[in-house]
Design a protein that fits this description.
Helix content: 10-25%
Bound molecules: flavin mononucleotide
Structural class: alpha+beta
Number of strands: 10
């Protein structure tokens, strides 16, 4: 955490976005100053849609974070150096319903200019405003393998959230 987070254009991020999401993982954090929750995610993407810079994430309805995603207009995605892998593992295996994950993970929350929760340790913070949300449906799958592999046990299908990147901070 040597340099300060500074506002940059999303298009100036130099990371390989597939590696950033799939391998480095991210925290999806939603809520407000009174209460927020965070969870690790590595399904999703970033791109360009409806002439806007967007992210899309997939959240299962049984996650505690889902309640905060539903209740709030925005959320953040935060990305970290590999030394925070243990913190991301914890946020991806424990539920905020059962413990204070942020304290246990040793992360320092702060609120962005838009009042969205994020973490001081992050090297990239994306402030996002929801544009579209839709529950995945069994009927829409064109190949059965993902359905069998990921949705044959109990648990709901993910909900996709497409959100505009309203500010991007990086160091
Ligand atoms: C590497 C990794 C990636 C994950 N990706 C997702 C994801 O994209 N969507 C999702 O719904 N859950 C994902 N999870 C699971 C949630 O992070 C996990 O269930 C978490 O404990 C939910 O916390 P919560 O109940 O406090 O929201 C992932 C977990 C890990 C470890």
């Amino acid at each position: 955490m040597n340099d300060k987070l500074k506002e940059v254009k999303p298009s100036d991020l130099t990371d390989n976005l597939i590696r950033l999401i799939a391998s480095d993982w991210m925290l999806v954090t939603a809520g407000d100053r009174n209460k927020f929750n965070t969870m690790t995610a590595n399904w999703g993407g970033m791109g360009y849609l409806w002439n806007r810079n967007v992210v899309f994430v997939f959240i299962r309805p049984e996650r505690y974070t889902y309640e905060f995603m539903e209740r709030n207009e925005g959320f953040t995605l935060t990305f970290f150096d590999d030394r925070y892998r243990d913190a991301l593992n914890l946020c991806g295996t424990m539920s905020g319903r059962d413990c204070d994950k942020v304290t246990e993970a040793g992360l320092t929350p702060f609120f962005t200019e838009s009042g969205l929760p994020a973490f001081a340790e992050a090297r990239i913070v994306l402030e996002c405003r929801k544009l579209y949300a839709s529950q995945l449906t069994r009927e829409a799958f064109l190949e059965s393998e993902p359905l069998k592999t990921h949705y044959s046990t109990k648990g709901g299908l993910h909900k996709i959230y497409i959100a505009e990147i309203i500010r991007c901070l990086a160091r």
